[in-house]
Design a protein that fits this description.
three-stranded mixed beta sheet, globular, alpha/beta, 23% helix, 3 helices, 127 residues, four-stranded mixed beta sheet
Length: 127
């Protein structure tokens, strides 16, 4: 089954650490510039999703509850043909995301879906 979002082992390890400090978490990917285009990690329920937000899926991380990932609707229109992988790199991200004090930041890496994945997730292509 095709999935819209995944994560690297380094990101999974950071999520386990963040959950131990803050409780259950969630991600939201907006469409802003600079830090606004990074996946933001919040305590579950702290960021309120709206009717236009799209639930990309839940990240399965050993040792913690699944982590939901959301994206703004307008941003989803640009990214609906891509698989997103949440990763972590050294550096300081946004002060609003939970990893900021850790000296690292989450980011997304993307790849286009194969034709089969795209058809499964978005329906058959029309020409």
């Amino acid at each position: 089954m095709a999935e819209r979002v995944g994560l690297t082992p380094a990101a999974a390890e950071l999520l386990r650490r963040l959950v131990s400090l803050h409780g259950q978490v969630m991600f939201h990917q907006s469409g802003g510039c600079r830090d606004g285009s990074a996946p933001m990690c919040y305590p579950a329920g702290e960021f309120r999703t709206g009717a236009s937000d799209v639930h990309l899926g839940d990240l399965s991380v050993e040792g913690i509850d699944d982590v939901p990932v959301w994206m703004s609707g307008p941003q989803f229109e640009y990214w609906k043909h891509t698989h997103l992988t949440i990763d972590v790199v050294p550096g300081r991200g946004s002060g609003f995301s939970l990893e900021a004090p850790e000296g690292v930041r989450f980011l997304v890496r993307s790849r286009l879906f194969s034709d089969a994945e795209s058809a499964e997730l978005n329906g058959p292509a029309t020409r």
